[in-house]
Design brief:
The chain has 196 residues and is of the alpha+beta class. The chain is built from seven helices and seven strands. The longest helix is centred in the last third of the chain and has 24 residues, at 147-170.
């Protein structure tokens, strides 16, 4: 739970992965964000295929209080992450291509300024290095570029989190109550509070 960015895309065959990694590395250093570089060059001819090897190519970075942003790809040029590859990859027990290429990053606790920097970086990189990039931004900043809207979205999510925490403090679990029973009781309470 928390405001997030969801994204997927494909790296351009004519772009340089090494150049993108260097640019992202520079941004991470400017903001003092932790980062990790994976493989820096795709295997020859690999981006012409749907198949992929078991390596990850690209870079990830982690602003403070933010989940990692994976600017990572499989050898076929599609965005993914080490975790997605491990869980949904072809050698995993239950491969599912749909989830292999879907990435999400929660920015809620990093704040709206960091969120905006990430969106600007994605827009810049998308225009320069990607043949396609799809972003769903829960604050609508990707679509609208309105700083007021992103601030309001963060305030709404913070208020929801505060209200949920307050509710948990004021409605403790009952003795011998299962987690399912407790959650059902919480939802019933919320539903009753919203009725006129």
């Amino acid at each position: 739970m928390g405001l997030s960015i969801h994204y997927n895309g494909r790296f351009s065959r004519s772009a340089s992965l090494r150049s993108m990694i260097e640019e992202v590395e520079d941004v991470a250093k400017i903001y003092n964000w932790k980062y990790h570089v994976f493989e820096i060059a795709f295997p020859d001819g690999s981006r012409n295929m749907e198949e992929y090897d078991q390596s990850v190519y690209g870079i990830s970075f982690s602003p403070e209080k933010c989940e990692p942003i994976f600017l990572c790809f499989l050898s076929n040029g599609k965005m993914s992450s080490p975790q997605n590859l491990q869980i949904w990859g072809k050698d995993a027990p239950t491969p599912n291509e749909q989830f292999l290429y879907l990435l999400s990053t929660k920015t809620q606790y990093a704040g709206y300024e960091v969120h905006m920097v990430i969106i600007h970086l994605l827009k810049y990189l998308g225009g320069k290095y990607f043949v396609e990039l799809h972003v769903t931004d829960e604050s609508s900043y990707w679509e609208r570029g309105d700083k007021t809207l992103v601030k309001e979205a963060f305030e709404r999510y913070n208020q929801m989190m505060d209200n949920f925490s307050l509710m948990l403090e004021n409605i403790p679990a009952r003795r011998n109550e299962t987690i399912d029973e407790f959650i059902n009781r919480l939802f019933a309470y919320i539903e009753n509070k919203q009725k006129p």
